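Sample intake sheet
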Amino acid sequence: MTQNVPLLEVSEARRRLLDHFTPLEPESIPLAECVGRILAKDMIAPYDLPPFPNSAMDGFAVRAADVAVASQQTPAILRVVADVPAGRTVETVIQFGEAARIMTGAPLPFGADCVVPVEDTDFNYRQPGISVPHVVKIYRPAIEGANVRPAGEDVRQGELVMNAGHCLRPQDAGFLSMLGQAHVSVRRRPRVAIFSSGDELVEIDQPLAPGKIHDANSYTLAGLVKQNGGVALHLGVAADDPRAVREILDRAVESRADLILSSAGVSVGALDFVRSVVEQEGSLGFWRVNMRPGKPIAFGHYRNIPFIGLPGNPVSAYVGFEIFVRPALLKMQGAVQLERHWQLARLMEPIESDGRETYLRAIVRFKDDEIQARLTGHQGSGNLRSLVQANALLFIPSGVKSVPSGSLVRIFLLDGAV
């Protein structure tokens, strides 16, 4: 490939890449481990929630007709015939002129059709161990169904409550526990083999010699893989030598990786061997993608395993992951939503671009009833600190070379941003 290859638009490059990925097989996991995993099949409610009518507060279960005209001056006086704590049922049927003390969440006894809060009675005692009174005075009327949660109010048996492809959150885990789901069917986590390439790189536990730098991309990419549901297999650094590159790629195959992810070595430099070694054992579509940062992106297969080669500059590798690798990982996990949630922000400074689709590091704040965005400073693709300082990426469309201050621009928040 040469520099004369036309630049491929980002949307087309991403479409071609994602066409090669399909959801991985499902597996059953304990509910306690489900947060962050993606549901493999639709979830149907096996029973109503709540499963029985129950009280929404502490009070007295009564018949609405018995308290229809109750007031402070003329309270309804009812005989207390039962005590219903949460988790218990009683056989007593509430008859005319009767009531049952009831606790929040306790089943509504037969015959009762509403609950009067203790605040509306003469028995406003909440201390543990207080016996039920023989009679209770009701000072306010109540209508049928008042303060009662009917069976199926939240969910009906047989109702579709979660779709396959939903990424499970803590509240989802709690909800599934209410439905008695001790295990959940989710897509298997993709295994991603990660390595960096370049003679200038050394591992973080090695001292720096002249001309050397520590490998940062492997750690950034491993963190991003874990953050997006994958299992990161850290393979280290491959020297600028075809044999070293082949050896590390073969280790990726032996590790049963679902995806091989590299940084550097896929450009047009004299020592960029990753691309050529991949082509010898598979195929490679090398793209000069119309984006900044991260123009050199490679995608193909090495011994039938998908391979994505990202640029070597740290910010370029990060942005390349965000645009190409993240949606591929989500698709392998069966996610429905592959795109980020974009928002509009007011640009607080002018921006000049070179016409490529551009992703800039920005700091956004909510001020004056709108989101406002400023760049973090110098946008060089080797300046990782500016990415650390950013809480969003700011998008400039292809073909746009100048954006005035005050314009509305698209942004998405980075994971972990507050």
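Comment: The CA atoms of residues 160 and 275 lie 47 Å apart. The radius of gyration is 31 Å.
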